[in-house]
Amino acid sequence: MKIFLLLSFVLPLMIVGCGTTSKDTFYWGNYSTTLYDYKKNPDEKTLEAHKKELLSVMENSGKKNKIVPPGVNAEYGYLLLKEGQENEGFEYLAKEIELYPESIVFISRIKDEYNKGKQ
CA 48 from chain center: how many Å? Predict the structure, then answer.
């Protein structure tokens, strides 16, 4: 009888606890679609579409009360560095570190590789 009473209180709490839905923390927009298109067909058109989507994700995350996903600022900054836009590229890499301090090792590696390529 005691087990039945215990289960009658615990089981509903477990069901309710497992059944709650949490909102997504990050806003991804159409990131995966444009990245897939770019990887499948890497040309200027798909690259520009993906860059526009990265900017859109960064701009719209705040409007949707969500966080810019990890790596988005870094990816955009890296693409800018590849195009020779140093100042702006490094700014986005710094934003990545600001949002995700644990990314400092990865971002430092990107910067080091970029600077090696310039020599």
Answer: 18
